[in-house]
Design a protein that fits this description.
This protein is an alpha/beta fold. Helix 7 crosses helix 11. The chain is built from twelve helices and 13 strands. The protein has helices at 14-26, 74-82, 98-105, 108-122, 133-139, 166-177, 195-204, 219-228, 265-272, 283-288, 302-330, 333-346; strands at residues 2-7, 33-38, 53-55, 68-72, 90-94, 127-130, 148-150, 181-186, 208-213, 235-239, 253-256, 277-280, 295-297. The chain has a seven-stranded parallel sheet with strand order 3-2-1-4-5-6-7, sandwiched between helices. A six-stranded parallel sheet has the order 10-9-8-11-12-13, with helices on both faces.
């Protein structure tokens, strides 16, 4: 079975990390021959694909060489839509709740325009992979259930992660020496990720310090908010760090304050590292874990977050093993790869 996987760029973004994890497991399978195609010139050296990788030539792509075209992202989906008659079987993985994501990232007008465009592009696909059951229910308003497949994202082990930056480790240790409980957060800095809410919590609760991994269009706004709230001495913006998960074990807690998510690799990575997790009470997170495994709080409710933090301080360590067992049973690279393998072969 010959599969072409098309992604927007070779960059350490959530959907690309998922594809990297997937193909680096499936490349061991003799029944599949996989090749990765990307659109943008920019290449991140941290992305290591164990299959052939090539920039997509839109004008001279050999569709007849592939049994399946598997796209990820609006531009790859557009390429498949335009060339649908040349494609034997088209699979697209949906990584987000399209209208919510675009609204948080841009505005409501862009969300309406491009959200509806994206729905049109997906209509001609043979299968749409949703990364959660909540997402499947969401898209069943527009597509027949027979077209929708649920495959949870999976992550690989982190035994070989190294190359720590000493200034970050030192900062965590210094906060601990000053008596602070240290919270970690990671992700692209957009309004959807809810980091602003954590900064407001930090202004209220003086016993905590916060380190944030990531960059994005909200970085300057968040830095100004931290300064205005007078918490800059307890709040460190670390910027983008490749494999930020390698720092998670040094934190007392990981917080995942998203207002909307299609899945959330950071949540699963934190559980994998056996760190107590506090996360927003949204449907997707409730699907992935329950309250015996992580601690939930109401979105945009600082009092609820304060209560959740108290619960996590008292019982967070008791939840770690239950959460880790859920991860092993549902969200590993092996389980994700097995389901994609079955989907490819069924095509």
């Amino acid at each position: 079975m010959r599969v072409a996987i098309i992604i927007p760029r070779l960059e350490e973004l959530g959907p690309v990390k998922v594809i990297q994890t997937l193909i680096n497991y499936l490349c061991k399978t003799e029944e599949l021959q996989i090749k990765i195609f990307y659109l943008d010139k920019t290449i991140d050296d941290q992305i290591k694909m164990m299959v052939p990788v090539e920039r997509l030539d839109r004008k001279h792509f050999c569709f007849e060489d592939y049994d399946i075209i598997h796209t990820n992202g609006i531009r790859p989906d557009l390429f498949a839509f335009i060339n649908r008659k040349k494609i034997r079987y088209h699979i697209s993985t949906i990584h987000n709740f399209v209208f919510e994501d675009l609204s948080f990232t841009y505005n409501k007008l862009i969300s309406w325009m491009f959200g509806n465009l994206w729905l049109v592009l997906w209509r001609r696909a043979d299968k749409l992979v949703c990364v959660s059951n909540v997402m499947k229910d969401y898209y069943s308003k527009w597509f027949p259930v027979s077209k929708l497949e649920v495959i949870h994202n999976g992550i690989t082990g982190t035994e070989n992660l190294s190359m720590y930056e000493s200034d970050i480790i030192n900062e965590i240790e210094n906060f601990h020496l000053k008596g602070f409980k240290v919270i970690g957060a990671a992700g692209i800095l957009t309004k959807r990720k809810g980091i602003d809410h954590v900064l407001n919590f930090l202004a209220k609760e003086k016993e905590f310090a916060l380190l944030i991994f990531g960059t994005g269009k909200e970085l300057d706004t968040l830095q100004r908010l931290a300064k205005r709230l007078d918490i800059s001495d307890r709040c460190m913006f670390c910027g983008f760090k490749s494999n930020a998960v390698k720092y998670f074990k040094y934190f007392d807690f990981i917080i995942v304050p998203s207002r909307s998510e299609g899945f959330c690799l950071t949540l699963v990575e934190a559980v994998q590292q056996k760190v107590p997790v506090i996360c927003s009470d949204i449907d997707v997170f409730r699907e992935l874990f329950n309250s015996d495994e992580v601690t939930f709080y109401r979105v945009n409710d600082t009092n609820s977050l304060s209560e959740a933090m108290k619960v996590s301080m008292e019982r967070g360590n008791d939840k770690i093993e239950l959460a880790y067992t859920r991860y092993l049973n549902n969200y590993t690279d092996q389980l994700m790869a097995k389901k994609y393998y079955e989907l490819y072969m069924s095509a």
